[in-house]
Design goal:
By secondary structure, the protein is mainly alpha-helical. Helix content is 78%, strand content 0%. The protein starts with 6 loop residues before the first helix and ends with a helix.
C-alpha cells in the first residue's frame, strides 16, 4: 500500500489547519462584536445567514467550473483573497468604524470565498490520497475543522483585551501563510480539459443541470443528500447557543466555549480512533444510522442539563458523529467518479447551505417569540424524524455506498 503522508497531502493538510485556525479566530471575534453591537438574536442570526447564504449558490456555480479548472489554483487564490479581506477589515475596525450593513456585505463575500474553497478542497483532496488510504485520510480531515473551536476561548480572551482589529490582523497573516504553502502543491490534475476554448455560459448551465441530474439518477446519493439537507436545517439551531449562553444569568461566553470545546475534543478523539481502527465493511451503514439516532436524542435534551452534563453530552456527540462523517465522506468520495466529483460536491453543498440558511432564519425568528430551548427541541425532533423517514427508509440504496471498502 502506498503511503498517505505524501508531500502534496501534507502541504494541503497543514495549509488547511493554518487557514481553519485563522478563520475560527476571526469569525468568533466578529460574531461577538456583532452580538454586542446589535443586542438582537435575530440580527445576530441574520449575520450568520449572510455568511452562509453564498454556500447555497456559489458551490453550484463553482462545481461545474472546477471540473474543468485547476482546483489547486482555486484553493490558494481563495486564501489570498481572504487575506486581503481580513487586512481590509483590520484597518477598518482598528479605527473604531462599525457599520452593520457593511459587515453583512463583507460576510456574504467571505462566505463566497469559503464556498468556492470548500468545493475545490473536497474535489482535490481525494486526488491526493493514494488508493487504500481513504479511511485514514478522512479521519485526518474530520479532525481539522473541529480543531478550529480551540480558537474560540482564545478569541474570547483576546476580544476583551486587544480588540477585534488585532485579531483580524493575526488571522490575515494565517491565511497568507496558508496560501503560500498551497502554491507549492504539484499534483497532476488529470481532470483538466485539453481544450483551451472559452468556457461558454451555455456549457456552464448544462453542467449545472448535469450535477443535479447526477444526484437524481443515483438513488443512494439522493437519499444521503435529502437526509443531510434536513439535518443541516435542524443543526442550524446551534447558531442560537451563543446568544443563549450570553443571555442566561448563570452562563457565559467562556462556558459556551467549554461546551463547544468538549464537542471538539470528542471529534479529535473520535478521529484518532478512526485513523487506527477499520470499521467492519458490512456494518458501516448501521453504525452511521445509530449515530444519527443517538445524536438526535442528545440534540433534543442536552440544553436542559447542567453545564457539566452538557459538556459530557457534547463530547459524546463529537466522538460518535466523527465516525458517521468519516463513513459518509470516505465512501461517497470514493464512489463518485473524479470527473463528476466537483459537480456532486457543488450540488451537495448547495443543498446543505439552503438547509442551514433556511433553518437559521426560522430559528432566529422563532427565538424572538419563544424560548431558545424550545426552538432547539423542535429542531432536534425534526432531525430525529428525518433519520427514520429518509435515511432508514432509503437504506437499501445507501448501503451499497456506505458498506464499501475504501
Amino acid at each position: 500500500m502506498e503511503k498517505l503522508w505524501t508531500r502534496d497531502f501534507t502541504i494541503l493538510t497543514f495549509g488547511s489547519v493554518v487557514s481553519v485556525f485563522g478563520n475560527a479566530l476571526a469569525g468568533f471575534a466578529i460574531s461577538l462584536m456583532v452580538l454586542d453591537y446589535s443586542e438582537s438574536v435575530f440580527l445576530f442570526v441574520l449575520f450568520m445567514v449572510a455568511f452562509n447564504l453564498p454556500r447555497a449558490i456559489a458551490p453550484m456555480l463553482a462545481g461545474p467550473l472546477l471540473d474543468t479548472f485547476s482546483r489547486r489554483k482555486t484553493i490558494y487564490t481563495m486564501d489570498f483573497l481572504t487575506f486581503a479581506l481580513f487586512l481590509f477589515l483590520f484597518f477598518l475596525l482598528s479605527g473604531g468604524f462599525f457599520n452593520y450593513l457593511l459587515l453583512l456585505a463583507l460576510a456574504f463575500l467571505k462566505g463566497t470565498f469559503d464556498s468556492i474553497y470548500l468545493v475545490a478542497y473536497e474535489s482535490l483532496y481525494p486526488v491526493l490520497v493514494a488508493k487504500g488510504n481513504f479511511r485514514k485520510a478522512y479521519s485526518v480531515s474530520s479532525m481539522i475543522m473541529p480543531l478550529s473551536a480551540v480558537m474560540m476561548p482564545i478569541a474570547a480572551f483576546l476580544y476583551d483585551r486587544i480588540g477585534v482589529g488585532q485579531i483580524l490582523l493575526y488571522s490575515a497573516i494565517a491565511f497568507f501563510v496558508a496560501a503560500c504553502l498551497e502554491t507549492q502543491i504539484r499534483v497532476d490534475e488529470t481532470h483538466l480539459r485539453e481544450s483551451k476554448e472559452q468556457y461558454r455560459f451555455s456549457e456552464f448551465t448544462k453542467s449545472l443541470r448535469e450535477g443535479i441530474a447526477y444526484i437524481k439518477e443515483e438513488k443512494g446519493l439522493q437519499v444521503i443528500t435529502a437526509y443531510f439537507f434536513v439535518a443541516m436545517f435542524a443543526f442550524s439551531s446551534h447558531s442560537l447557543l451563543l446568544p443563549y449562553f450570553t443571555e442566561t444569568p448563570h452562563l457565559s461566553v467562556m462556558l459556551y466555549t467549554l461546551v463547544i470545546g468538549a464537542s471538539v475534543l470528542g471529534r479529535v478523539v473520535g478521529g484518532a480512533i478512526q485513523y487506527k481502527v477499520e470499521l467492519p465493511k458490512a456494518k458501516k451503514f448501521m453504525i452511521a444510522m445509530t449515530v444519527y439516532v443517538v445524536s438526535s436524542f442528545i440534540e433534543i435534551g442536552f440544553i436542559f442539563t447542567p453545564v457539566i452534563v452538557m459538556t459530557i453530552l457534547m463530547f459524546t456527540t463529537g466522538l460518535i458523529t466523527v465516525t458517521s462523517f468519516n463513513i459518509r465522506m470516505s465512501t461517497t468520495q470514493d464512489y463518485i467518479p473524479d470527473e463528476k466529483r466537483a459537480r456532486f460536491n457543488g450540488a451537495f453543498q448547495m443543498f446543505m447551505t439552503i438547509g442551514t440558511v433556511s433553518g437559521q432564519l426560522i430559528a432566529g425568528a422563532l427565538a424572538e417569540v419563544i424560548p431558545i430551548r424550545a426552538v432547539i427541541v423542535i429542531y432536534g425532533s425534526i432531525v430525529l424524524t428525518a433519520a427514520f423517514a429518509i435515511m432508514w427508509r432509503g437504506r437499501r440504496h445507501v448501503m451499497p455506498i456506505f458498506n464499501r471498502t475504501v
